[in-house]
């Protein structure tokens, strides 16, 4: 008896994007540009806000095109420590001379 193959459709397995970029970052950039425009109420601030929104949307689309989950990868990377010392178990107690050798 052969194993049954079930196809995984791309539509059910896609990353959630908004306007072509990462959802959280795109909405955050839009909120920041909107806050700048409506809080300053100046022509220069409006131009700068629209420019900020356009550039950030372009860069976020490029980022999503390279890797749709790049934000999650970056945030996980930031949680890692810079150095993990080699130890046999998590419960091992090192002497002070061994501890100095790890740094």
List keywords for this structure.
mainly alpha; single chain; flat; 103 residues; 2 strands
Fold and architecture overview:
The protein has 103 residues and is mainly α. The chain has a domain at 18-80. The protein is 56% helix and 4% strand. The chain contains 4 helices and 2 strands; from the N terminus they run ββαααα. Helix 1 runs antiparallel to helix 2 (43-66). The longest helix has 24 residues, at 43-66. 8% of the residues are buried. The mean pLDDT is 87.
Low-confidence stretches: none
Largest sheet: 2 strands, antiparallel
* Helical stretch tally: 4
Q: Find the count of extended strands (DSSP E, 2+ residues).
A: 2
Task: Record the SSE blueprint.
Elements: E1 17-18, E2 21-22, H1 23-40, H2 43-66, H3 70-79, H4 96-101
Antiparallel strand pairs: 1-2
Helix pairs in contact: 1-2
């Amino acid at each position: 008896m052969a194993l049954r193959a079930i196809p995984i459709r791309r539509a059910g397995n896609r990353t959630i994007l908004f306007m072509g970029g990462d959802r959280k970052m795109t909405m955050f950039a839009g909120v920041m540009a909107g806050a700048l425009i409506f809080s300053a109420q100046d022509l220069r601030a409006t131009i700068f806000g629209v420019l900020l929104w356009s550039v950030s949307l372009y860069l976020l689309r490029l980022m999503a095109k390279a890797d749709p989950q790049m934000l999650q990868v970056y945030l996980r990377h930031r949680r890692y420590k810079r150095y993990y010392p080699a130890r046999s178990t998590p419960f091992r107690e090192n002497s002070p001379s061994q501890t100095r050798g790890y740094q």
